[in-house]
């Protein structure tokens, strides 16, 4: 069954990007590093667009800029790791977000990583880590949606790091 818009619905103009960005700043989201590759081919970046999709099969969705090295690395390896960050890992969120100028493999220099069952990089002391095989991929504008089928998880400790209103913040757990 095809899902198509009603006639003329595509002619309705979208809001401006700045207005959309301002609105989305009000949606709190967990902060994660999505990584792929091995050895000198490891690539990763900070994202706050991670969400679960379904339980059967267990899948999550990540949105990644189509121009990033990590994007191409996921397409090449067909697998990726998601390391959800805790509040004491703000420096890593900034590093993998491009602050400080570290690129490629050098982003991994300041923290302990391990290669998971799928041979994807996972942060050893992540708040939570998930390993995914690429289930589907779709380009939407400047970004791609990657759907990963989760094959392994590991839960850590601490308080999660969140992105809210353009700042990294702490969510204190009971």
UniProtKB/TrEMBL annotation:
Boundaries of every Flavin reductase like domain copy: 24-170
Cross-referenced Gene3D superfamilies, in alphabetical order? Electron Transport, Fmn-binding Protein, Chain A
Q: Which Pfam family, an example, fits this chain?
A: Flavin_Reduct
Keywords, comma-separated and alphabetical: Oxidoreductase
Taxonomically, which superkingdom? Bacteria
Family recorded in the similarity comment: Belongs to the non-flavoprotein flavin reductase family.
> Under what name is this protein listed?
Flavin reductase family protein
């Amino acid at each position: 069954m095809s899902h198509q818009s009603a006639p003329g619905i595509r002619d309705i103009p979208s809001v401006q990007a700045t207005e959309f960005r301002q609105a989305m700043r009000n949606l709190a989201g967990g902060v994660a590093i999505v990584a792929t590759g091995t050895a000198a081919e490891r690539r990763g970046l900070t994202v706050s667009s991670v969400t679960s999709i379904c339980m059967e099969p267990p899948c999550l969705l990540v949105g990644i800029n189509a121009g990033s090295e990590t994007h191409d690395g996921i397409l090449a390896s067909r697998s990726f790791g998601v390391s959800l960050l805790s509040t004491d890992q703000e420096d890593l969120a900034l590093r993998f977000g491009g602050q400080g100028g570290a690129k490629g493999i050098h982003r991994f220099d300041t923290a302990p990583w391990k290669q998971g069952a799928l041979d994807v990089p996972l942060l050893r002391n992540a708040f939570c880590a998930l390993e995914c095989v690429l289930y589907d991929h779709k380009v939407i504008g400047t970004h791609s949606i990657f759907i990963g089928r989760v094959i392994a998880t590991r839960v850590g400790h601490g308080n999660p790091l969140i992105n809210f209103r353009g700042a990294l913040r702490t969510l204190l757990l009971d």
